[in-house]
Write a structure and sequence with these properties.
- The protein has about 280 residues and is an alpha/beta fold.
- The protein is about 35% helix and about 20% strand.
- The chain folds into 2 domains: about 5-150, Rossmann fold; about 170-265, GMP Synthetase, Chain A, domain 3 (2-Layer Sandwich), CATH 3.30.300.
- Strands 5, 6, 7 and 8 form a 4-stranded mixed β-sheet that branches. A two-stranded parallel ribbon has the order 1-2.
- Helix 1 links the parallel strand 1 (about 10-15) and strand 2 (about 35-40).
- It is globular.
């Protein structure tokens, strides 16, 4: 906003796939920075299109398409709009398209390969050739507050790619609750800043469990936490066993429909940070 002033109108689209209460929290943060920001609650529109979809690439394409549709509708309400500024960073580009060599497409990102070919706005991506640690250094130089600079990376498609298998509102709600317990637990125990990225993944499998005197057959989730510098390589975070035990118990006891929690100890490569 310092560079373009009143010419900047920020549009924050709630796709319904953000973390629990994140839309409201982030919107207030943007306003606190003095940005002219418009909040667009469009969750139902995204979820209707995603219902029953299981293929991760299809999920990404749907989210990219609906995002642009919503964005363009809102942009038309603002006069003389010609440019769309996106926060695309270099790892997004590398994983989506071949840049300077024969690198394979690992997965499309909603702001790289997932956008429709026909757009009525020109795209500008000032961070396109920067890694995440470099973006943070730019943010620090610009005087952004620590609570924004230290936020974990979050995938553009949001929690849609952390619900493995078919999407449904019920599964998404379950995941949001489990994710909130994990992230708030990291903050409460002073572990948040020692982790590059943390996530909960809802698996498309069920397992037998026991609650009281009754047999259960419910869902399993994976806790994922990694340490990294630029997101291109990462190692699994060696979180304390007592902390993991507490989070596991809280999720199983507080989130209806989940009876098993496991921890992912895979590094990147060969695994990616996200499961989809």
């Amino acid at each position: 906003s310092r560079a373009v002033g009143d010419n900047l109108t920020s549009i924050f689209v709630d796709n319904g796939l953000l973390r629990k209460n994140e839309y409201e929290t982030v919107l207030e943060s943007y306003k606190g920075l003095g940005l002219n920001v418009i909040g667009v609650p469009a969750g139902e529109r995204f979820l209707e299109q995603l219902e029953g979809v299981s293929d991760p690439e299809t999920k990404r394409k749907i989210i990219g398409r609906v995002f642009i549709e919503v964005f363009e509708e809102e942009a038309h309400k603002v006069k003389d709009v010609k440019w769309l500024a996106q926060g695309t960073i270099y790892p997004d580009v590398i994983e989506s398209v071949s840049v300077n060599g024969p690198s394979a497409t690992i997965k499309s990102h909603h702001n790289v390969g997932g956008l429709p070919e026909k757009m009525h706005l020109k795209v500008v991506e000032p961070l396109r050739l920067l890694f995440k640690d470099e973006v943070r250094r730019v943010g620090k130089a610009l005087g952004l507050p620590e609570f924004i600079l230290k936020r974990h990376p979050f995938p553009g498609p949001g929690l849609a790619i952390r619900v493995l298998g078919k999407m449904s509102k019920e599964k998404l709600g379950m995941l949001k609750e489990a994710d909130n317990i994990f992230i708030e637990g990291l903050r409460k125990h002073g572990l948040y800043d020692s982790v590059w990225q943390a996530a909960v993944i809802l698996l498309p499998v069920q397992s037998v469990g026991v609650m009281g005197d009754e047999r259960t057959y419910e869902n399993a989730v994976v806790l994922r936490a990694v340490v990294s510098t630029d997101g291109m390589t990462a190692d699994w975070s060696h979180l304390p066993y007592d902390f993991l035990a507490t989070v596991s118990n809280d999720i199983i006891n507080k989130v209806k429909g989940i009876n098993r929690v496991v921890y992912d100890i895979s590094s990147k490569p060969p695994s990616t940070i996200e499961w989809e």
